[in-house]
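B., you asked whether I could sanity-check this one before it goes into the benchmark set. Here's the sequence:
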Amino acid sequence: MEKDGVHDTCGSIEMPGVEAIVYFYYMDMTSEYGDSVDSGIYFETGKWYRLTQRIKLNQNNLPNGIMQVWIDGVKVIDDTEVRYRLWDQGEIDSFYFSTFHGGAAEDWAPQNDSFALFDKIKVTKLKPEFN
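And here's what the prediction gave me:
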């Protein structure tokens, strides 16, 4: 992939009441360890979701990169002012997928046994068909 990347995932979550967030690193983040962006969507137990994320790199060191997220075809995050890189250094050359509860202290741990299932993961240069 070069400057625009989309990944599409179907997932079933066994963590009721957990909000879908994007946790990411970028040039102007406010936290030392990455920033979280809330979606306003809370997962329901046993329900399958279609998760789609689009990343477009910024140009000329400007905050004009894109991070968009759709859940079941509904856009829930639309940030068009992201500075992922300095000037035009770096391209999208890999895909990293992770789920975690985060944090180093015990209070970050899940309260109950939890699991998530993922199926049909797709990475493409094509924009989502529901824009």
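One thing to flag: The longest strand covers residues 4-13. Otherwise nothing jumped out at me.
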